[in-house]
Amino acid sequence: MIRHAILQFRPEKARVKENLARLAERLEALRPHAPEVVVLPEAALTGYFLQGGVRELALTRHELLELLSGVHRAVGWEGLLDVVVGFYERDEGAYYNSAAYLELPHRVVHVHRKVFLPTYGVFDEERYLARGRQVEAFNTRFGRVAILICEDFWHSITAAIAALDGAEAIYVPAASPARGFQGERPENVERWRTLARAVAAEHGVYVVLSSLVGFEGGTGAARLHALKYAGLPVEIGVRRAHRALVRAGLRDRVEIWADGGLKTAYDVLRMVLLGADRVGMATMAMVAIGCTICRGCQLDTCHVGITTQIETVEEALAHGLKRFVPQDLDRAVEHLTRFFEAKGEALRELVAALGARSLRELRGRVDLLYQRDHLEELDLSYFFLPVEEPEWLKDTSAHVLRKPLNQLTRTITEVVMGAYGEGSRKLVFQEGPVNSTDRALGAHLAGEIARRRLYGRGFDAEVELRFDAGSVAGNGLAAFNLEGMKVVVEGGAQDGVAKSAFGGTVAILKGRNPYGAYVDGSVGKSFAYGAIGGLLIVEGVADSRFCIRLSGADVILGGEPERPLRDELGNLAARAQAKGFAFEYMTRGRALVLGDPGPWICSGMTGGRVYLRHWPEMGLTEEAMKRRLAKGAKVAVKPLDLRGIEDVRELLSAYIRVLKEAKREEKAARLEKLLEDPAQHFRMVEPVNQQVEQGVSTE
C-alpha cells in the first residue's frame, strides 16, 4: 500500500515564491501522516491562466527540481519524498504545459508534456504552448505509473496507451474550472468522478486526480505602462498609411483598419475621410453590454461579468466580490444590436449630408475636413494636403510582367501542404541559393499552419526549410515562425528575419564558399523584432535594432571579434557584432552574445536577460559592457547566478547542437570549453526592476 497525499490548493497567480512558501506549510502539516507520494495540480506553482506570461515564469526541469528540493530541505523532511507537480516548462526555446514526477531531493524521474491543448471556451493553450508528442509509462520506486494532464485524460486513447505500456496508476494534475452549481457538487466535478471511475474500471489502474481550486482571473488587459506611454494617435497613423499606399500605387490592394478611442458616428466618418476602410469600437461595445470602465480587467474582479471567469453570483461571493451582475447573453446581444444599428443610422445621415451615396465614396476625402481649434498651438495643415497616384499607374500601355517577389514562399506552402496531404509528417524542403528577391520565405507557410491549427483542421508535421550555401534571403525570412518549423539558411539574410516569431527554430549560418572557407552568416536590421518564442540563431553579425522588443524567444548571436576591442578609436558599431540599439524595449526572453554587443544596448529594457561574453583578452570586460549600455538604461551588469549558469549552458548547448548538425565540429568543440565554467566566461544584464508582477497583466 502506497500512502498518497492529494494536495489541492489555490495558487497566487504568477507568484512562484509565495506559492512555494504555501507548499512548505502544507507539507509541514502533512508530516504526521507520512505520505510517500504527494500529488499537486496542473500549473501548481504559478496558476493556470497566465497566457503569454508563461514565457516569464516557465522553468526548466532542473530549475523545478532545485526549487522543490529547497522546500524539502526547508521543512526538514526526513528521507525521500515523491512529488507529482504540474508546471510550465521551458526547453530549448519551446514552452510546454508539463507535469514532473520528482524523487526529492535527488532527481527528476519523468516529465510528461500535455498532448491535447484545449482551445475552446476560456481555454487558449495552443496559442502560447507547444504540444507534447508522447504518452508513456515509467518506473518509480513504487512501481510503474503514467501522468496525463487534464484534457489528456478526456481522450480515451491516452489512458489506453498508458495502461498498455504497463502503468499501474495514472496521475492526473488538472485545472478544470468549476461549472454548473445546481446540484450538491459542481457539474464538472461529477463528470471527473465518473470519468476517473470508468478509466480505473476499464484498464484496471488506480487514478489519482489533483485539481486547482479557487479562482484565477484576468483576460490579459494591457499593462499600465502600455496604456500610459505606448501608441500613436489613430488619426496620424491612418493618414500616413493612406498617403503612403496611394503614392506607392497600392491603395486598392490594402485595407486600413482603424480603432482607438472612437465613440461616435462622426468619429467613424472622420477616420474614413482620413483614409480608413474599416473602423472598430471595442470599448464602446463593452460599455453597451455593461462595462463601467473601472480599468481593472486584469484583476478578475469585473463586477459585470465581462473580463472574468466568474459566471454566477455564488461564484462571485466565494471570490469575495461585494457586487456582481452576471452577463445575460440574450440581453447583451440585444444591446449590441441596438448600439450598432443606432451608429449605422447616424452615420448614414452624415454621409447623406455630404452628398455621397455610400461611405466608400468618401474614403480619403480630406478636402472635406478642416482644423477647427488650437490653430496657434498645433499646425495640422499637412493632414489636408492632396495626394496623387503615381504617373505610371495612369499609363494604360503594356507593362512588363515579372515573377512576384514573394512567389517562392507561396510555392513552399503548396509543396509542403501537398506532401502533408499525402501523409508525410517529417518534411524537408531544400532549395538552391536564394537571393534578395525571395522575400518572406517561410512566412506564408507559417500563416497556413497557424490557420489550420486555429480553425480545427490541425497540422502535426515537422517541417524544415533549408536554403543552400550562398543564399542571401530577402526581407521577412521566417516571419511569424511557429512551433514545428525549422528554417536554416547557409549564407545570410536581409532585414526582418524571424520578426514576431512564435516558436520553432531559425538559424542563419555561415555558408561554405568555393575555397572551403565559411563566410557570412549575418542578418540585416531588426532581427527577431517582437519575437515571442522559438530558438533564433545568427552565426555571424547583425545590423542595428537586433532583438528590439524581444518578448520571450531564445536568441544566440554567435559572431566573435577577430581582434581585441579598440574603443578609443570611436565608432564602436563599425567593429561590433551587433551594430547598435540591440535589445531595445526587451520585455522577456533570453539572449546570448558571444562577441561585442555594440553600442546603445538595452534602452527601455524591462524584462528578460541578456548574457554577454566576458573575454578580457579581447577587451570584453565588465567595464566595456557598461560602456555599451544606452544612456539611461535601467539595467545592471552582474555575475551569473544559478539561473544564469543554467541559462547559458542551455542556450550555448543548443547553438552547439545546431553547429554539429551543420558539420561544424571544430567550432562546436571550441565552444564546448565555455560550458565548463559559464560563470567565468559570461556576465548577465537584467533590468534593475524586473516587470514580472502579473497583477499588472500578462499580455
UniProtKB/TrEMBL annotation:
GO molecular function: glutamate synthase activity
Residue span(s) of domain CN hydrolase: 2-245
Database matches in Pfam families: Glu_synthase, GXGXG
Coiled-coil positions: 645-672
Any one GO BP annotation for this protein: glutamate biosynthetic process
Cited PANTHER family: GLUTAMATE SYNTHASE [NADPH] SMALL CHAIN
Family classification: Belongs to the glutamate synthase family.
Name the record gives this protein: CN hydrolase domain-containing protein
Species the sequence originates in: Thermus scotoductus
